[in-house]
Amino acid sequence: MDGFERDLVCALKEVVNDSNWQYVGVKEMFNSPCTKLYSEDGEHVVLVHTEDGRFLAMDSACPHEGGPLELGDIEDVGNGKLALICPWHHFDFCLDTGSSSTGLQNQVYEVREFNGKIYIQTQSRLSLSPKTETAAVPFDSLTPRLPVPVCSEDTLCFWAAKILCTPEPKEKVALTHQVQERWNSGQISEIGHAEAPEQPSREESLTVREPGRIKRGKGGTLASRIALLHSLANIEQWAIDLSWDIIVRFATVRLQNGEQLPQEFFNDFVKVAGDEAKHYQLLEKRITELGSFFGSLPVHNGLWQSATDTSHDLMARLAIVHMVHEARGLDVHPQTLARFAAQSDESSVKILEVIYRDEITHVAAGLRWFTYICAKEERDHLSTFHDLVKQHFKGYLKPPFNSEGRKTAGMNEEWYLPLVRPS
Ligand code: FES
Ligand SMILES: [Fe+2]
Ligand SMILES: [Fe+2]
């Protein structure tokens, strides 16, 4: 190869490198409809291989609440367009544009096939297997002091653990309301301590499926409304457990200055637990009014993942569960409401409005305790939050944001805009 040819090859290599086309594998490796590709920046991608032989790609985490789109179904939505349907709440995402009829938008990527090789246009390196990294527990994280012996009865933690271990949702709700009442009236006054179960109990009759295998009712029908209410009731059941889990798991933490969490922390999360129980009850009643029942459809338990991921660190728990996921719930509220309003389902609309008002206070509670601990430990609350989200959430936060709802909860843009993918 003479000097000119070498220069030419080098120049071409530079062009290819600068263009951000990532080679992901030969075509034959992607025979299944959906393949998840892991990105180094946590924004994983789903590569879709359609029946007519096309390749398309979009972010694999659903912009709604992070459902696994790689486990979704591909549906023909007319006009030659295909959509990927999220297995969690069945939002549709057009494979060509990433837009959804719900108003949300997913990031799509250009895909090229050349000489039997597949290339995706993105700045991040993609691979077929996740990078195995053992998440380092920060030295100063607020780690619960476990194991601790099971405490005496009639303390808040005894009941929190008991409710977590109660599989029947109606009983879980009733116990939650009883404990809330007894705590508020001072009949239970000791916080105590108890060991939190790794995962809350669920009824054996509840069919728990891999997310991708949950089928939705056809759009716009009564069945699809029931399916959506059913998935919301499932979320509320987990939300009850998340509230009791933060109480029992972190009851014994000490802040860096040696102080314990104040009584108000427990007051707030007992109130959150009570709200979540009320939400479950309202949704369960509505599902019954519509002729079905909770448990009639399979559910997924992907929601506990963030609890497990943050079980070692109270600050991470507050950040991810209450300030990322619950805040995301505020963002998607308008779209969910519109679905029921479009079918004149006023009763469901009223329930969703009650839930929305309460959820604003839950985000506010997360924010209050996060900033309280930062102040006590002389940590900058914004950079601490951003670091924790980058460490535990994996991926970027996605617009659209309900900035009004978030602001009412006390969360200004400075909290979440720095966590959006840079354009
Ligand atoms: S998480 Fe995908 S539709 Fe809710
Ligand atoms: Fe709720
Ligand atoms: Fe909540």
TrEMBL record:
Domain Rieske per the UniProt entry, residue ranges: 21-120
Domain of life from the UniProt record: Eukaryota
InterPro entries recorded: DUF455 (IPR007402), Ferritin-like_SF (IPR009078), Rieske_2Fe-2S (IPR017941), Rieske_2Fe-2S_sf (IPR036922), Sol_Rieske_ferrdox_dom (IPR054716)
Cited SUPFAM superfamilies: Ferritin-like, ISP domain
Keywords from the UniProt entry: 2Fe-2S, Iron, Iron-sulfur, Metal-binding
Disordered, as annotated region: 187-214
Residues making up the signal peptide according to the UniProt record: none
The UniProt record lists the keyword Iron-sulfur: yes
Any one GO molecular-function label of the UniProt entry: 2 iron, 2 sulfur cluster binding
UniProt biased composition (Basic and acidic residues): 192-213
Name of this protein: Rieske domain-containing protein
Organism: Acipenser oxyrinchus oxyrinchus
